[in-house]
What we know:
heterodimer; A: mainly alpha; 2 helices; rod-shaped; B: alpha+beta; PH-domain like; 2 domains; five-stranded antiparallel β-sheet
Amino acid sequence: MTVEQVSVFGWMIIKTLSIxxxxxxxxxxxxxxxxxxxMSKVLAExxxxxxxxxxxxxxxxSLAIIVLAxxxx
Amino acid sequence: xxxxxxGSTKMHxxxxxxxxPSHLRFENQEKNETVILFLRQHLxxxxxxxxxxxxxxxxxxxxxxxxxxxxxxSIHIPVGYxxxxxxxxxxxxxxxxxxxxxxxxxNIFIVTNExxxxxxxxxxxxxxVSETQLSRVQDISYQTRGIxxxxxxxGDVTIQTAxxxxxFAFEIVPKPSQVVDIISDNAKVKLKKEx
Lengths: 73, 195
């Protein structure tokens, strides 16, 4: 294996690990959305929609960064 | 036109103390049951997380260039990793602070004309809901400790009951003296009604 090949292989591993890490984070963002849904069943109040919207925005951003990682990395 | 009950408090995302809150419903609420008092922990409990959030926000501006400069002497980092790393840092920082806010938002104490309810969400799989009838309240007290508690008017309210749950503790709630007054007044009314 040449030094160049080792370098390419190394970056492939880093790219795979980065995407796995980002995917795990997206799962965490999904859990926050689900948690918010469960919590709002117990307490229904007028301002809850703001929290729901923020949780959804966070999830969408977490998914979007995975797509961006596929493009840029 | 929207009708508001007398003395009702309009709810906001950051409301931590509300008497007769409007548009509030909770699980297992009876038909004739009205919410008298709604409590969350004092907003001051969110201050450390707001500070951590602010610190995390400035890290990419000051620390990232230094780290990249240090690493770049031995390895060349592709620009894609820098962009993804920075964006992810902001998303994760928001996620951390937001998850703490969600727990604060949904950990609540409710006093109705019938009972006292304490709802605690520990995580997705664990929810702790304890309640007691107002007529079972035996003793109620509050403690404010320290300079900040005095300055910002928050403290711990302890309610001793004759029920299965011997003690209720509302920790770091705003206006503890008012909370005690409201609960004891309504407990007296409830007791009178039952006699």
